[in-house]
Amino acid sequence: VKELFSSLGVDCNILELDQLDDGIRVQEMLTEITNQKTVPNIFVNRVHVGGCDRTFQEAAILGKRVLVLDFVVPSPQGTSWGLGGTCVNVGCIPKKLMHQAALLGQALQDSRKFGWEYNQQVKHNWSTLTEAIQNHIGSLNWSYRLSLREKGVTYVNAYGEFVDHHKIKIQQLERGSPGKLKVWAKSTEGPETMEEVYNTVLLAIGRDSCTRKLGLEKIGVKINEKNGKIPVNDTEQTNVPHVYAIGDVLEGKPELTPVAIQAGKLLARRLFGASSEKCDYMSVPTAVFTPLEYGCCGLSEEKAIEVYKKENLEVYHTLFWPLEWTIAGRDNNTCYAKIICHKPDSDRVIGFHILGPNAGEITQGFAAAMKCGLTKQLLDDTIGIHPTCGEVFTTLEITKSSGLDITQKGCG
Amino acid sequence: MAAMAAVLRGPGRRFRWRTQALAGGVRGAARGVAAGQQDYDLLVIGGGSGGLACAKEAAQLGRKVAVVDYVEPSPQGTKWGLGGTCVNVGCIPKKLMHQAALLGGMIQDAHHYGWEVAQPIRHDWRKMAEAVQNHVKSLNWGHRVQLQDRKVKYFNIKASFINEHTVCGIAKSGKETLLSADHIVIATGGRPRYPTHIEGALEYGITSDDIFWLKESPGKTLVVGASYVALECAGFLTGIGLDTTVMMRSIPLRGFDQQMSSLVMEHMESHGTQFLKGCIPTCIKRLPDGQLQVTWEDRTSGKKDTGIFDTVLWAIGRIPETRNLNLKEVGVNINPENQKIIVDAQDVTSVPHIYAIGDVAEGRPELTPTAIMAGKLLAQRLFGQSSDLMDYNNVPTTVFTPLEYGCVGLSEEEAVARHGQEHIEVYHAYYKPLEFTVAERDASQCYIKMVCLKKPPQLVLGLHFLGPNAGEVTQGFALGIKCGASYAQVMRTVGIHPTCSEEVVKLRISKRSGLDPTVTGC
Q1: Which residues form the Glutaredoxin domain (chain A) (predicted)?
Q2: Which domains does chain A carry?
Q3: Which residue from A68, A163, B8, B282 has the fewest beta carbons nearer than 10 Å?
Q4: How far away is chain B from the Cα of A294, in angstroms, using its nearest Cα?
Q5: pLDDT for B304-346, tens place per residue?
């Protein structure tokens, strides 16, 4: 540790406890303050850091030379954006904000049932929305640049190097924004064809990894030729020992921001800190922010059957009616909750699924519980918070195997 | 038999003996204590969350069950149907009116998201109240149908004990009915307290019993109290545009984590609710135009002040419904300090076959889901082959104030008291919900804290979440705590992005470190 600080050019106040008269007393004091019995015991700027390991980890943040290359190849339509990646610019963030805009439209309708009165004429202005969202994203781009600068990371905005199933044809009829496009499409199952005019065609047929133009073949990094993804071992190492891959480019891992963040942090700690903690890719919770949101963690029913066999599973499920939907006049048999339990393992919850409002908020805590070994019994023993949607999981009774009716009639 | 009848008759009362043509002769209260010879296996007094759950479970186990429920009108004359406090004057109407208030906020947000809504925007109390009341009535009906479906006999009568196994119920008409049972469960809950020592309090004030049933808007309202009932009511009244003031004697949300409670109050203060702190009302007078003049005293300065309001809502606590049950007669003991019925871990009172559950029982959380579970488990212990007891530890709850507060486990104060400051670690964060950004909403009080044991793996002792959808966020983590979650395990859970709840699994800054706990960026 003394060498580390010396190499960083940092002046230290060193207290050698074995050379002090009351050294033992000091050590006791330290234990009380810091909960650490061992030496060296390090404080930086009056803040307790820890022992040798911890100090090296923290030093990694100070000492290492880090370069980030980020470049956005404009989309075929010419769209480009700033620092932050997919999530910030063209993923999670703008998606959730636009989803919120749509939910607010629903809320406007509901509000009348709850006594709010205003003009029937309600319109939506697209550019007000996009401007507000772009401003927010701009602020995030900016804060990332600031953050990198503060941490001493070099950022260069440069490109670093090493249509069939749907059988559609699109013809532009009119330029402009929006213009007019004529679309011909053919069914995948029969001879039916269709022809329709749209202002916009949005292709959402999957994502390709940005690995083809990195020059990976020059350094011998293997990729899956079919999808461009990079296979790695459980420490995110490619077949070339000093080259690692994380995030969406990874073969066989969830394409999610929090997974990428976790993997990235842990990788840095393993490389430069003294950590050996690996990223856990199992039971990663996620939410689909469709108008009716879908939150899930663990296995789908199909996957569970495949892995554990149907006879070893018990599926509990129910439809439910969020209280706020009652007065709003929304349907009482739309929202749905289901858990998949592994019978031989104390009815362990191996799959959690909810379709309803705020699905993401609900699912998060259950994901933590599943990491701690959640079972059906524990769910039954837990008190629900009333009135919420999440509480429905504490009172699940009907199994799929029973075939009993789960339609809702009133208040349980 | 005649002697028994004389004893039972008491001063000036008349009984109608229930007779049934059954082999063995006349049935009636005189046959008192012999088990299996009563009218019912189980009689439940009180058709609320706990009572109905117990009755339905017992019926499902094949028993002969009766429920008696009666609502004594409030001083203002409000009354309601089957279902108890939660359904009629608690959780359900509360959450619906809270939702109405939240929707008002969403209409404001909508502008930022591109929705063009023309002014003026106003709220019509009557429309909301009617919708809420209709929903509650549908629940009353639903409960009656459920009881019928399960063959539980229901009587709308006001019950009191005649003897250990018999109850006399009086209907609104005055008609009396005697019911006897092997086992009797008291689940009569509680009612709001009136400060009867304050002049005008009873005549002119209303309580939570009345607010949800008002046909006309309460207008400019003074809410007296610091309970969650006070803050939740003041919250939604402010949210629908009414001039609302909360008068508190001392601290808000006593019993809850105080740091969180002050953040809840701070949020309300910065969003339109007025607070008169450290004040107590001394007198309520009605003015000629119908408005109410309230006089109060500032406890610190001793200064007196007055104000004019349309409505005064008392939210200063609840008292259990035990006074009129005639408990002394049958030997069921109550705690003289709070009038609650004393029970053991099996919910048994001082009389072996008489039980008490829900708000009326001593030492129980005053929550619907705990009453429901207690009722179910009691029925299973009595009539099923179960010996399962309720676990009252780590019961999660949520306060539905304008910015909601969800919590489970120990408050920071409790954790410090129990384990000592040096043995706990508190992780915390101020965060900003994504949806607040475009809406330009103030997120100053959006805050999370997790109280853990300091010793690795750092067992989670309590979680506190202040933000939108707090109930939904907290529920799953309550499960985690039940599974014995440690800080380490929670931190290994991957977040769902973008949500508010993911901020819980991203908590890194400890209070002890003194570092700034504000979450920035992704």
Answers
A1: 1-49
A2: 13-50 (no CATH), 285-402 (3.30.390.30)
A3: A163
A4: 12
A5: 999 999 999 999 999 999 999 999 999 999 999 999 999 999 9
